[in-house]
Amino acid sequence: GMHYRQLSRGSFHGCGIVNDGSARCWGYSGTGATTVPGGSWLAIGEGDQFSCGLRPNGNLVCWGGAMAATPVPAGGFKALSVGEEHACAIRDSGELACWGSNAHGQATPPAGRFVHVSASYTQTCAVRDDGSRTCWGGTP
Fold first, then answer.
1. Which of 70, 77, 80, 129 measures 20 to 30 Å from 115, CA to CA?
2. Mean pLDDT value across residues 112-129
């Protein structure tokens, strides 16, 4: 049967990556957030009414809502986290790139190299390669 290797949830919908690398999304689909492009995925995250995914080749793709029209950063990425109205990803170099709403400064990441990133409602937090943690944006 179908086995999920990653499950995640947004405000109104959820997504999962199944064992063959393809993805399924469910829930509110009025903005197209559950209409997943075909192909394989390393990671998927859900925001308010959109989803973003990370391809095995390091490319980022977003779909649904206004974020679908927001250009995603180009280049090779290895990790992705999606907040309410923004998203951040870690480049192969370890540097961060964020896009989407920056109303609280949540999409303006600090310089440096990072190993983990977590985007939330109006804030983003990340762990540097030396193990220290930093957050930016509004209150969590």
1. 70
2. 96
Nearest CA among 106, 110, 56, 111 for reference residue 81 = 106
Instruction: At 45, list the tokens.
Output: 């995250």
Instruction: Strands of 1-130 (E only): list them.
Output: 4-9, 13-18, 23-27, 43-46, 51-54, 60-63, 77-82, 86-91, 96-100, 114-119, 123-128
Query: pLDDT digits over 1-26, tens only?
Result: 777 777 777 667 888 999 999 999 88
Fold that domain 4-137 belongs to in CATH: Methylamine Dehydrogenase; Chain H (2.130.10)
Cβ contact 63:37 at 8 Å: yes
Report phi then psi at 67, rounded to 5.
Answer: -65, -25
